[in-house]
Amino acid sequence: MWAGGYLAPCSRRYNLDDMEPRTISVKGAREHNLQNVSLALPRGRLICFTGVSGSGKSSFAFDTLFAEGQRRYLESLSSYARQFLGQLAKPDVDQISGLSPSICIQQKSAGWNPRSTVGTITQIHDYLRVLFARAGHQHCPRCGRPISAQSREQIVARILELPSGSAVLILAPVIRGQKGEHRDLFEDLIKQGYARARVDGSVVSLSEAPALARHVRHDIEVVVDRITISESVRPRIAEAVENALKLGDGTLIAHIVSPDNPARDSRAAGSSQREPANRRRAPGPEESKRAATARRAGGKLKRSASNGGEDILLSSDYACVRCGLSFESPSPQLFSFNSPVGMCFTCEGLGTSFDFDPELLVPNPRKSFFNLAIEPMRTRIGRWRRHIYRGVAAHVGFDLKTPWGRLPAKAKNTLLYGLGDTHVTYEWRWSGGVYRHGGPFPGVIAELREKHRKAGSNFVRAYYEKYMRKAVCPDCNGGRLNVQARAVRVGGLNINEVCALSIVRAAEFFENISFTRTERLIADDVCREIRGRLKFLCDVGLDYLTLDRSAPTLSGGESQRIRLASQIGAGLVGVLYILDEPSIGLHARDNQRLLDSLCRLRDMGNTVIVVEHDEQTMRVADEIVDFGPGPGVRGGKVVAQGDFDKIMASRRSLTGKYLRGEEEIEIPAQRRPVRPEAKAKA
Ligand SMILES: [Zn+2]
Ligand SMILES: [Zn+2]
Q1: Could you tell me whether strands 493-494 and 167-179 are parallel, antiparallel, or unpaired per DSSP bridges?
Q2: 8 A C-beta contact, residue 202 and residue 151
Q3: Whole-number percent of the chain with pLDDT over 90
């Protein structure tokens, strides 16, 4: 666990204080093998602790200084907060004075969320989301053309294009995928004169609105008007559109009431009366705000009709006039695969899908469909299902007795994946004649998914999973974001493409990017933050990583340097940083950059202690403390302290001998972790 985060707010107290002690003074440290060590360390310097493995340098740095810093920090919290954090043992030391809040930056890759990436842990991704939402250019996911705003007149014209005589509900979306009971909202709407709303797909009267489950996400759309299309209703449509756009914060839904299934719309359909006149009041700031929040919280590109009819989403902001597709205006959530707004609809933001694999489903392609070529269908297909499949085969034109392997691809696809929205007519023959009925055909895989989902036992679930395979999501190709998010570009790239750039390339990209004058109002600040963070990452030698690199795959040194870059970015002062052998695994060039970063941290007004064997580090350090002389019981003392020349000249110091080339120091193969008790127990 990285302890840095919660120290930030209190750090300023230690800043620029003339009364502040110039040294950290330690008296009588006896942790582990330390032999009553007393030491004064200059504050605001880069200090290198060195010595052979087991000489006590880590015991002093981590188990004494850092442990005491952490303990004091916890002590400073309220007793309420402390009860959750537990107590830390006091290190075995007589006295420490001049200690600052301490942050330990260790070589540990554990502790990142498996979904984290370099972009998310450095917060660059958060800035990118804001940038894409506020300065991104939406393109149509279908035809790729830039999206322009739709005028009210265009929206009215689009509704008037619907077949004459069709009944249309003009709905204003006010709650989109938000949890809550929303009772206040219903009351508000009644006060504004609205009588009905569509709640989770069903039109209800607001005065008899159902009690909504608080922990479930709901969709609420106000019924602004119900109109039967004809040229004469144009003024009424215009008025309804005007009101709906106001209430829905720029978005409305024209719902075509299905002639097949009017039952669920009965309340609305039963009334051909106009809504009361007082509804025309413009929504107050309160309602608009609520609507805006709702809109940011949810929404999909195109929602399937929930009650048999069809929804047309129309927006005064974003729409492709050619394809007739409307979009909600982008919000930062649109660019988060963890948010229901931004996640890929197919894989729900996972990037992979675990689904039935046609190859596994049909182990023997010589069998016909009716002969159970699709193995997990298991039992003989009954008469009712046979007439359904026959209807499908007749609709597409193939023979169900053909061996599976010889069926055309279209037939296989139809049987497996269905026919989408297509209406298929089925014929049920019986002694009394032929009964015709119709409906969509969802396909065998949809049936199997349902069986897998509803499996009552692990045994049954495992049976279906034999036919399933994990694969890269075919919709987003592993990019996790939905089509709308992927169709927003900044500087010609979408957010996934930006995250796939290496950090050095991303830095170039943000160096050369240009914006219009209005975009710059937001983009300038955001880009400055992004550029700064990218530069810190380059400075610590991580320019080769990509922003979408998954955090758990980073090496210990890489994650340590990311933490270091974040610390430089955080700009704290008066902090004691303790680092554990940061030079490990670095090339000389990168090591120099790392040392530059450490010096920067120092120059910002911090004390930096590095536990290190590396000669280059010792040369840069302001002060070196050499622990020893030997490991274990032969160590635990300070052998020499001073600058590089002083250590090199020291007759007693083993490090001195090594620096003079008289002796070689063995570099330990394994590093010791910080004493576990030194971490707060949650
Ligand atoms: Zn288009
Ligand atoms: Zn996907």
Answers
A1: unpaired
A2: no
A3: 35
Task: Note residues around ion ligand 2 (Cβ under 5 angstroms).
Answer: 344, 346-347, 473, 475-476
Q: How close is the Cα of 352 to the center of ligand 2, in Å?
A: 6
pLDDT-based confidence at residue 305 (cuts at 50, 70, 90): very low
Ligand 1 geometric centre to CA of 316 (Å): 16
Cα distances (Å, whole numbers) of residue 569 to 537, 540, 550, 566: 10, 12, 21, 5
Distance CA 198, CA 220 (A): 6
* Interatomic CA distance for residues 674 and 10, integer angstroms: 24
Alpha helices in 362-494 (DSSP H): 383-396, 409-417, 444-453, 458-465, 483-486
Q: Do 578 and 611 meet the contact criterion of CB atoms below 8 Å apart? A: yes
pTM across the whole model: 0.59
Distance CA 157, CA 371 (A): 53
CA 466 – ligand 2 centroid, Å: 22
Helical residues (DSSP H) of 118-229, grouped into ranges: 118-121, 124-135, 152-160, 183-191
Taking the CA of 482 as reference, the closest ligand is 2
- The alpha-carbon radius of gyration of the chain (Å, integer) is 34
How many angstroms does the Cα of residue 306 sit away from the middle of ligand 1? 24
**Domains of the chain, earliest start first:** 5-98+105-109+573-613+621-678 (3.40.50.300), 138-329 (3.30.190.20), 355-471 (1.10.8.280)
Q: What is the DSSP letter of 61?
A: I
Q: Both tokens of residue 181?
A: 């009971």
Q: Which ligand is nearest to the CA of 483?
A: 2
Ligand 2: distance of its center to the CA of 147 in Å?
Answer: 23
**Ligand at shortest distance from the CA of 474:** 2
168-216 pLDDT, tens digit per residue, is 999 998 887 788 888 888 888 999 889 999 998 889 998 888 888 888 8
Continuous segment of H or E residues that includes residue 241: helix 234-247
> 485 C-alpha to center of ligand 1: Å?
15
CA 475 / ligand 1 centre spacing (Å): 18
The vertex-241 CA angle with 236 and 245, nearest 5°, equals: 155
In this prediction, residue 664 has a pLDDT band, given cuts at 50, 70 and 90, of low
Residue ranges of E strands in 306-347: 310-315, 318-320, 325-327
**In Å, what is the CA distance from 217 to each residue of 175, 199, 299?**
9, 11, 12
Are the beta carbons of 676 and 108 closer than 8 angstroms?
no
- Give residue 658's pLDDT: 86
Closest by Cα among 564, 575, 563, 579 to 58: 579
Q: So what's the pLDDT on residue 111?
A: 63
In this predicted structure, the answer to whether residue 337 has a pLDDT above a threshold of 60 is: yes
Q: How far is the CA of 340 from the centre of ligand 2 (A)?
A: 12
The Cα–Cα gap between 43 and 358 comes to 67
Q: What is the whole-number distance in angstroms between the Cα of residue 565 and the centre of ligand 2?
A: 32
Confidence of residue 148 (pLDDT cuts 50, 70, 90): low
Q: Give the ligand whose atoms come closest to the C-alpha of residue 476.
A: 2
Per-residue pLDDT tens digits for 7-27: 334 444 444 444 567 899 999
Tokens of 421: 């929205």
User: Ligand 1 centroid to 18 CA: how many Å?
Assistant: 65
User: Sign (positive/negative) of CA torsion 641, 645, 646, 650?
Assistant: positive
What pLDDT shows up at residue 421? 77
- Tally of CB atoms within 10 A around 502: 15
Residue type, 670: Q
Q: What is d(CA 19, CA 227) in angstroms, rounded to the nearest whole number?
A: 77
Backbone angles phi, psi at 513, to 5 degrees: -70, 145
Given pLDDT bands bounded at 50, 70 and 90, which one contains residue 366?
very high
Ligand 1 center from residue 147 Cα (angstroms): 8
